[in-house]
Amino acid sequence: MTGIGSYILLCVLVFVIVRHCTPRKRYISSATRKAVFWRDRGRCRACGGRKRLEYDHVKPFSRGGSNHASNIQLLCRRCNRSKSARYYPITGLIATCVNRLRML
């Protein structure tokens, strides 16, 4: 290939290499934290608590989850520890926490 075709191919290859070789970071930006806090109304998404809130990845970072607001949720420490590194769609997490609260 010569000309514009080889240039486009080179750009695509550079993009793929840079994207896959750049290390991912767990850092959640302050803008994302604020957006998630307001979206979740400052409450745990599982039990509704307001104390000891933590930012949690819905799909765990260790399993390829992103730091985008759509993958971050507020959970209280207790609910976050019970979730660990498992991946629940939010409805599954809520069902798990409700069942745990019923056993108390």
User: Given the structure, what is the number of helices?
Assistant: 4
The structural class is mainly alpha
- Average pLDDT metric: 75
**Radius of gyration from CA coordinates:** 19 Å
CATH level 1 class label? Mainly Alpha
* Largest sheet: number of strands, sense, barrel closure: 2 strands, antiparallel
Percent helix, as a range, is: 40-55%
Residues in β-strands, percent: 5-15%
Shape: elongated
The CATH topology is what?
DNA Binding (I), subunit A
SSE arrangement, N to C: HHEEHH
Low-confidence stretches: none
Query: In what order do the strands lie side by side in the largest sheet?
Result: 1-2
- Total number of strands: 2
Just name the CATH architecture. Answer: Orthogonal Bundle
Give your account of this protein's structure.
- With 104 residues, the chain is mainly alpha-helical.
- It has one domain: DNA Binding (I), subunit A.
- The chain contains four helices and two strands; from the N terminus they run ααββαα.
- Strands 1-2 form a two-stranded antiparallel sheet.
- It starts with a helix and ends with a helix.
- The model has no long low-confidence stretch (mean pLDDT 75).
How do the helices and strands line up, and which of them pair or pack?
Elements (H helix, E strand, L loop, with lengths): L3 H18 L8 H10 L13 E5 L14 E5 H7 L6 H14 L1
Antiparallel strand pairs: 1-2
